[in-house]
Design a protein that fits this description.
CATH architecture: Beta Barrel
Distance between the termini: 43 Å
Helix content: under 10%
CATH superfamily: TonB-dependent receptor, beta-barrel domain
Number of helices: 4
Oligomer: single chain
Radius of gyration: 26 Å
Largest sheet: 22 strands, antiparallel, barrel
Number of strands: 35
Shape: globular
Length: 680
């Protein structure tokens, strides 16, 4: 089967490459170094459609791209608290790395994943990890969950729609993702859209499947005196759990016991599921005042944001394999030290809801020529309710409720205009309720300079945070795990920077962070807190090289953790992509190449289904394997297409293709994908 797939792929790529030699046009991936500015929606700033997966060009390419795309559409993102807009960079990258957006390991330089599309995942690059939310069981699904600050709002002269579809494998192993979107303007100011994300991944290993369906409505109104953004979104994530393979040697040393079909490899669990279901209702209103006939920028703005979220999680096992007739213990029960509400199968339920209201007053930058900065002050009230299993129950699971409330005040000082210097300083402080004493101070400073007519930039950023543990980090009770803690506040101090040089297409960024009272899941899978300090150092080099139609892009990340038992990180992570990029008959853009991901051996995280969390295992090291994909990306007018041989190097060396303990990535698969934009 693998030989057949390889033959098909080689034939297709050889045919396209031969045709490409007739017409060679270099697509220059150079960039200007410009960064997105705060959006002025009266301008003709533009983006090209990015509805395929929400992947956009790097910010520094925005200025160059804006000159190339017809100004029929523009888009922006907002901050969820104050709806501060930031212009979405234009996307004229055509088919560039389109295949990467469709695989879990393509979301960063190195990623821990369970292999399936739709499965939990966690980036290995520490400074790229997002701060966790109130419901920490959602954290492993950050790549799929749509939130107000990740939603792309649009405005277009004509109706816009996009159809995205990807598939891989076949039969009982087939994986599919379908993502349609439609966006329509009603007049110049009001836009309404709908999108859906459907994932159905059966998996290449027994009892490891994913099924997701998320959908939502969004709207925006951009007027002179009134602005509005709204989002209503539902998510349903269902994952069957297998606990990983029983014997890694079935992958790394197949001579011990070779399997022609990956589904014949024994797994630790069956008949177990994690199910997440939730919704979000978001509405922000902004009223602008002090606009005169000659004024294009209002003096001040009043902002009111309401954000409701709820989420339910259920872990259920229907394992009926009784190993102890007296106690009713099942095979799944034997995997864990605890067995609460004995005699009943696992049926853990937990949920929460949060209703947050924020009121802000902003003095807008540039309403007079001498006003060189913007200033915003806000107050925020958050009411929360958590429901979990009663730790005092003996038999069948019973739920109890806990309430929280929090009042936060804060402000933002920013300068987002100017050719030389820009900055943003934000701070917030919990003054009442559960989050009293919690604070965050974030700062960013960026300066620009020209080198031989091209704009380079230097950026510095820093933060100081003192944050509270989440409710379920302190209190948790379930079939197989229970704890009741009063963890201390987590204190984090970070300083970092970045330099970008367009002449050499070089980007260097790095940072140093000190963390005190870091919370993690230990080798025993129970939650723990490191009372001491942890220092993390990271440096990343991005370098693009090209000679004619041949390109070689590299990302190299070095990381160091002072306490690897509490915070393990790979010392070196590399993404390398060598490809040919050209055009056929001036209309069909082609990218043909091979990309490789690699990370040094380390104690990569394990994954615990009963907790829906990654944990710091000390059983064995994982790494030192090149994850390679051979691919062909094509772009013709409004259509993108890719074909890829995923994990083409699975038989290289010891075949140690794991990113998570006991969870091998999928074997070699032929994958296809399509993104088709419509403007009518």
């Amino acid at each position: 089967m693998n030989k057949y797939l390889l033959t098909v792929f080689i034939f297709m790529t050889f045919f396209c490459t031969t045709k490409a030699q007739n017409q060679v046009i270099i697509l220059d991936k150079d960039s200007t170094g410009a960064t997105p500015q705060v959006l002025n929606l009266d301008t003709t700033a533009v983006i090209s459609p990015v509805g395929d997966i929400g992947k956009v060009s790097p910010p520094e390419e925005q200025a160059k791209n804006a000159r190339k795309v017809k100004p029929d559409m523009y888009g922006w993102y907002i901050s969820s608290r104050l709806a501060e807009p930031r212009l979405a960079p234009a996307d004229d990258t055509v088919a560039y790395n389109f295949h990467r957006a469709t695989i879990m390991t393509g979301q960063d330089v190195a990623v821990s994943t369970l292999s399936n599309v739709g499965s939990p995942n966690q980036t290995m690059i520490f400074f790229n990890r997002e701060e966790g939310g109130l419901f920490n069981f959602l954290n492993p699904f950050g790549y799929y969950l749509v939130t107000p600050d990740k939603k792309l709002f649009r405005n277009s002269k004509v109706p816009y729609s996009n159809l995205f579809y990807q598939t891989g494998g076949g039969g009982q192993n087939k994986e599919e993702r379908f993502r349609p979107e439609i966006s329509i303007n009603f007049g110049k100011r009001l836009n309404v859209g709908f999108d859906l994300d459907y994932v159905y991944s059966r998996g290449y290993y027994n009892h490891l499947g994913s099924k997701q369906i998320s959908y939502g409505l969004y709207a925006s109104y951009i007027g002179t005196k009134y602005e509005m953004h709204a989002l209503a979104y539902n998510n349903n994530f269902n994952n069957q759990e297998n606990g990983g393979v029983v014997n890694d040697d079935n992958i790394t040393n197949p001579e011990v016991q070779k399997f022609d079909n990956s589904r014949d490899i024994a797994t630790r669990m069956d008949n177990a599921w994690n199910k997440l279901r939730g919704r979000q209702l978001y509405l922000t209103n902004k009223y602008n005042v002090g606009i005169g006939e000659q004024d294009s920028i209002p003096v001040a703005s009043f902002i009111l944001t309401s954000y409701y979220r709820d989420q339910k999680r259920r872990f259920v096992s229907t394992d009926e394999t009784i190993v102890n007739g007296t106690s009713g213990q099942t095979a799944t029960d034997t995997l864990y030290a605890e067995n609460n509400y004995s005699g009943y199968p696992a049926n853990d339920r937990m949920s929460y809801w949060s209703f947050r209201n924020t009121f802000g007053i902003a003095l807008n930058e540039g309403f007079r020529p001498w006003v060189k900065f913007g200033l915003t002050a806000f107050i925020e009230q958050d009411i929360r309710r958590f429901k979990h299993l009663d730790p005092n129950m003996v038999f069948a699971p019973v739920g109890v409720v806990d309430n929280q409330n929090s009042t936060v005040v804060g402000g933002v000082l920013s300068k987002q205009k100017g050719d030389f210097l820009r900055y943003n300083l934000s701070a917030d402080l919990g003054v009442l309720g559960y989050n009293v004493g919690e604070f965050r101070v974030n700062g960013e400073l960026q300066t620009f300079f020209n080198i031989k007519g091209k704009q380079a930039h230097i950026k510095a950023n820093a933060y100081i945070k003192n944050t509270k543990p989440t409710f379920f980090e302190n209190i948790y009770y379930s079939k197989y795990f229970s704890w009741n803690h009063d963890f201390s506040d987590i204190r984090r101090v970070y300083i970092g920077g970045e330099i970008y040089l367009p002449q050499t297409k070089t980007r260097i960024k790095g940072g140093v962070e000190n963390i005190k009272n870091y919370i993690y899941y230990g080798a025993d899978k129970y939650i723990a807190q490191e009372s001491g300090n942890i220092q993390v150092v990271s440096v990343q080099l991005d370098q693009k090289l090209n000679a004619g139609i041949f390109h070689w892009d590299n990302k190299i990340v070095y990381q160091m953790s002072s306490k690897e038992k509490s915070l393990p990180l790979p010392s070196l992570s590399v993404y390398s992509n060598i490809y040919l990029q050209s055009k056929i008959a001036k209309v069909l853009t082609l990218q043909l190449g091979l990309d490789v991901q690699y990370f040094t051996e380390y104690y990569a995280p394990g994954y615990e289904p009963a907790l829906l969390q990654f944990y710091n295992q000390r059983e064995k090291k994982v790494g030192n394997f090149p994850f390679a994909n051979a691919y062909l990306n094509l772009h013709l007018k409004n259509t993108k297409f890719f074909v890829m041989l995923y994990n083409v190097g699975k038989d290289v060396g010891n075949s140690n293709y794991f990113t998570t303990l006991h969870y091998p990535v999928n074997p070699m698969i032929l994958k296809f994908g399509l993104s088709w934009n419509f403007f009518d």
